[in-house]
Specification:
Blueprint lengths: L8 E6 L5 H7 L2 H4 L2 E6 L12 H13 L2 E5 L8 E5 H4 L3 H34 L1
Parallel strand pairs: 1-2
Antiparallel strand pairs: 2-4, 3-4
C-alpha cells in the first residue's frame, strides 16, 4: 500500500488457495484499519487442507475485535465470508442485520420456492 501510494482499500478479495489464514494472522491491525471490506474463501472444505474451523473462528474473532461485521454466506462451511469495517463502510447495525439475515434468508427461501414450483410444473408436464 505504501509503495503504491494507496491509503485505503475498498474491497480486498482473498481466494489464495488456503493461504488466507496465514495472511490474516500476520497482517497488522493497522492494515486492517484501512480496508473497508474483505471477502474470503476459506479452504476449510479441502480435506487435510490445513484450515480448521477453529482457525476460522479465531480469524472471525480477531476481525470482529478490530471492528468488522462478519457475514457468512455459505451454508455449512466458510467458503464465502464477507468482513465489513464498521468505521470505514458507514453501514449501520440495522443495515448489517438486513444483509446478514433478512436479505440472505429471503433470497434463499425464494430460491427454494422457485425450485419447488419448477418441480411441481415438471411433474404436471409429465402426466
Amino acid at each position: 500500500m505504501t509503495r503504491a501510494g494507496i491509503d485505503t482499500i475498498d474491497l480486498l478479495k482473498m481466494d489464495i488457495e488456503g493461504a488466507e489464514i496465514g495472511l490474516i494472522q500476520t497482517a497488522s491491525d493497522e492494515i486492517f484499519s484501512k480496508i473497508t471490506q474483505i471477502t474470503v474463501e476459506f479452504h476449510d472444505f479441502v480435506p487435510g487442507g490445513g484450515v480448521s474451523a477453529h482457525q476460522v473462528a479465531q480469524i472471525n474473532k480477531r476481525l470482529q475485535d478490530l471492528g468488522f461485521y462478519v457475514i457468512k454466506f455459505s451454508r455449512s462451511l466458510n467458503t464465502d465470508v464477507l468482513f465489513i469495517n464498521r468505521k470505514l463502510s458507514g453501514i449501520s447495525t440495522a443495515e448489517y442485520w438486513y444483509i446478514k439475515y433478512i436479505n440472505k434468508y429471503f433470497h434463499g427461501i425464494s430460491r427454494l420456492l422457485r425450485s419447488s414450483l419448477n418441480l411441481i410444473q415438471d411433474a404436471g408436464n409429465e402426466q
